[in-house]
Amino acid sequence: MNKKVPHDAILRLSFYLRALKNFEEENIKVVSSKQLADFLKINHHQLRKDLSYFGHFGKKGVGYPCSALIDKIKTILGLDKTWSAAVIGFGNLGRALSFYKGFREQGVYIKVAFDVDEKKINKEYNGIKVYSIEQLEKIIKKEDIQIAIITVPKYAAEEIANRLSKCKIKAILNFAPINLVTSSQILIQNVDFGCQLAYLTYHLKFLKP
Ligand code: NAD
């Protein structure tokens, strides 16, 4: 991984990709950094700086060819490949994420799920088989899973993460309300919609009624 690229610049690439796809759908072949930035309501200097971390794109005064930049960003983000994922904890959130088509569209296929609930184990939902958590290591190896999505209760998350770090798993997307820490063996992204909501409620306080 290129350590010099700021974390937020990598996250913003996904927004640029989504915007470029919008332009392409409108049959727009070339887009300027200003057009792209205005569409996203961000500063075009920021956009150019973000892209510059990954090379030189487009022609000065002409703009970026949408299709080529889409391909380039997909390659940078690893979205030109397909990835196998597993959901650990097939409850409300785990199920919702498993059935979300958007992940497949970006090359991430949720192939299996794990749970402790006997009522769910050995059943198949929308083509996703739920296995007992006891089979975690065996199935992850058999299905060649690269990404784990943790949606178990807080008390179970750390032990699951420890077990995953001993498997071939390289990345975890963790939704449990506990900050799992990235190591040299495993990449971890902790996600908390509550933090995003708190950001909104913080700003809401300053709005006039
Ligand atoms: P849920 O109770 O509906 O689902 C949890 C599932 O995990 C259940 O099916 C349960 O049987 C299973 N489970 C429990 N222990 C397990 C273990 N050791 N191994 C495997 N499976 C196990 O809960 P939910 O509403 O889907 O929430 C799941 C988790 O996601 C919770 O930790 C919750 O706090 C968190 N969450 C996070 C966000 C966020 O923004 N990050 C949003 C919603 C929920």
Please outline the helices and strands:
Blueprint: H1 7-25, E1 30-31, H2 33-40, H3 44-52, E2 64-65, H4 66-77, E3 83-88, H5 92-98, H6 101-105, E4 108-115, E5 124-125, E6 128-132, H7 136-142, E7 147-150, H8 154-166, E8 171-174, E9 187-190, H9 193-204
Parallel strand pairs: 3-4, 3-7, 4-6, 7-8, 8-9
Antiparallel strand pairs: 1-2, 5-6
Helix pairs in contact: 1-4, 2-3
Bound molecules: nicotinamide-adenine-dinucleotide (NAD).
Nicotinamide-adenine-dinucleotide binds next to helix 5, strand 4, helix 8 and helix 9.
Measured as a percent range, the helix fraction is 40-55%
CATH architecture of the largest domain: 3-Layer(aba) Sandwich
CATH topology of the largest domain: Rossmann fold
The top-level CATH class of the largest domain is Alpha Beta
> What integer is the average pLDDT?
92
What does this structure look like?
This protein is α/β, with parallel strands linked by helices and 209 residues long. The chain folds into two domains: 70 residues, Arc Repressor Mutant, subunit A; 113 residues, NAD(P)-binding Rossmann-like Domain (Rossmann fold, 3-Layer(aba) Sandwich). It has nine helices and nine strands. The strands form two sheets. Strands 5-6-4-3-7-8-9 form a seven-stranded mixed β-sheet, with helices on both faces. Strands 1-2 form a two-stranded antiparallel ribbon. It is globular, with a radius of gyration of 20 Å. The site of nicotinamide-adenine-dinucleotide has 24 residues, from helix 5, strand 4, helix 8 and helix 9.
